[in-house]
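Input record, target 12 of the design panel.
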């Protein structure tokens, strides 16, 4: 059993795209990988009346998992597009934290390697005062932080890494999402240099925007290829415990 927790400096930074990209690349290499979005808000109602998380659908498509795995991938789905603690109250739902932690450990035991994606940033409330960082600390997995390339990202990333470390979480790497190599100038490149310099954490990739990738539409075209091209997949496999996890 091994895993990584994928978090971010904020919401809408691209955790789901990066988690899916890693899953697709690992799958393409013949490695069995589980994916999980323990809590999702902003769920949509399917044609048969079921509340589904688009993030979970995207992750399942990327990892090649059947619909029957959905309850393991996403045990809690809430309709309001709000932070989970608020979305739950608005929905009349109680989030049972011990059950949620147990579901994460169940997923980790079902697969030889797993990627668990948080919701929002690390201080987003899951239920009452229980934050994403509390779940990260309980699971004790190394973390990857997804960050933006633009102005302000140094501050957001350094604060996220520092807070995680204060809670005893190992931050194993940083991935920049939405990188545009053709337009990257002194701002973007200096951001990367300072993030590594101030955190001491390596940047393990600069993932580009692709119109062929869409979370709402569950489009995963070329996801694995882009991951291989732009992310340090070999290093990430090492963080997951090596290459002795082929098969299921």
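The sequence produced for target 12 reads:
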């Amino acid at each position: 059993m091994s895993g990584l927790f994928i978090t971010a400096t904020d919401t809408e930074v691209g955790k789901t795209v990066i988690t899916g990209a890693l899953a697709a690349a690992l799958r393409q290499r013949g490695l069995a990988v589980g994916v999980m979005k323990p809590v999702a808000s902003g769920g949509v109602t399917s044609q048969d009346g079921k509340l589904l998380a688009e993030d979970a659908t995207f992750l399942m498509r990327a990892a090649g998992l059947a619909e029957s795995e959905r309850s393991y991938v996403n045990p809690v789905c809430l309709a309001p597009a709000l932070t989970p603690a608020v979305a739950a109250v608005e929905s009349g739902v109680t989030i049972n934290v011990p059950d949620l932690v147990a579901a994460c450990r169940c997923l980790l035991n079902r697969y030889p390697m797993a990627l668990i994606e948080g919701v929002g940033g690390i201080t987003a409330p899951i239920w009452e005062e229980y934050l994403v960082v509390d779940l990260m600390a309980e699971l004790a997995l190394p973390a990857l932080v997804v960050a933006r390339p633009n102005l302000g990202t140094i501050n957001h990333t350094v604060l996220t890494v520092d807070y995680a470390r204060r809670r005893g979480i190992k931050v194993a790497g940083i991935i920049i999402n939405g990188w545009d190599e053709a337009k990257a100038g002194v701002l973007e490149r200096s951001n990367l240099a300072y993030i590594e310099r101030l955190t001491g954490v390596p940047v393990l990739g600069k993932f580009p925007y692709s119109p062929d990738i869409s979370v709402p539409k569950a489009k995963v075209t070329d996801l694995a290829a882009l991951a291989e091209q732009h992310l340090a997949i070999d290093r990430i496999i090492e963080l997951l415990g090596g290459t002795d996890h082929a098969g299921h």
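The radius of gyration is 17 Å.
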